[in-house]
Amino acid sequence: MNSSVSDGRAPYPVIDPLECKACGRCVWVCPRKVLAPGDELNARGYAFVRYAGEGCIGCLNCFYACPEPNAIRVHLPAKEAK
């Protein structure tokens, strides 16, 4: 997967390059603009989406906007018990 994860305490999208069809819906709906079309092509010839590596707020807009099942999921860290 092509995500940069620092410490695991922040949410982040996980994009499956083989499933991404480069429609751009996730890029368009992201309020933080942390997703962008990539430069690399997947096996199907699509320039799959990339994550900037930081800034995701875990809103899940990208997940719900994506028409491809399994192309994108969002890691949401467990909340710490107090």
What does this protein structure show overall?
With 82 residues, the protein is α+β, with helices and mostly antiparallel strands. The chain has one domain (12-74): 2-Layer Sandwich (Alpha-Beta Plaits). It has two helices and four strands, in the order E-H-E-E-H-E. The chain has helices at residues 25-29, 61-65; strands at residues 12-15, 35-41, 47-51, 72-75. Strands 1-4 form a two-stranded antiparallel ribbon. It has a two-stranded antiparallel sheet with strand order 2-3. A hairpin with a 5-residue loop joins strand 2 (35-41) and strand 3 (47-51). The protein is elongated. The N and C termini lie far apart (32 Å). Residues 1-6 have low confidence and may be disordered.
Q: How many strand segments? A: 4
Tally of helical segments: 2
Query: Structural class, from secondary structure content?
Result: alpha+beta
Strand arrangement within the widest β-sheet reads 1-4
Cα-to-Cα separation, first versus last residue: 32 Å
| Major sheet description | 2 strands, antiparallel
Unreliable spans: 1-6
The CATH topology = Alpha-Beta Plaits
Strand content: 15-25%
CATH class: Alpha Beta
Secondary-structure element order, N to C: EHEEHE
Could you provide a short overview of the structure?
The chain is α+β, with helices and mostly antiparallel strands and 82 residues long. It has helices spanning 25-29, 61-65, and strands spanning 12-15, 35-41, 47-51, 72-75.
